[in-house]
Amino acid sequence: MNHSANIDQSTNINHDAVLRARVALLGSEEPSSRQQVAAYRVLVEVNPLVYLPRLAVALLEYSRQEFAHQPQTALALRAESVAAARRMCALEPGREGLLLNSLTRYREQLVLMDRQADVPAVDEEIALIESDHGRAAGR
Fold first, then answer.
1. Interval 11-22: pLDDT, tens
2. Of all helices (H) and strands (E), which one includes residue 81?
3. CA gap 3, 132 in Å, rounded
4. Dist. CA 47–CA 59, nearest whole Å
5. How far, in whole angstroms, is CA 46 from its chain's centroid?
6. Are 84 and 44 in contact (CB under 8 A)?
7. What CA–CA distance (Å, rounded) separates 67 from 81?
8. What is the separation, in whole angstroms, between the first and last Cα of the chain?
């Protein structure tokens, strides 16, 4: 198999995954949080501008709904939400608010898990974003 055949196969697989993700989101019933997260994880590779904010929100909801009793999993999902919000374009409207919300929910999970050593770094990032947002609003 040559190099171009490998690319075609991976493109077909990605195209199929994208199609399945879109169908899952557009079905007649509201998709579950798990289905939304799975679909947005695929679609963010195709159109990050549209799907990164949706992924970040869906991850927070998924962590709250499905994994409240599994703190490690909830923490990982909230960390993924923070990462998705960070990946958004800095000029995207609502980015700071979404990032602050994701960081706040991540911080809450750290506190719940008594991981106090990790909290100051999150607090510092939250303060930096709020400070930058205040300076931008004052211009």
1. 445 888 888 888
2. helix 71-87
3. 47
4. 17
5. 15
6. yes
7. 14
8. 58
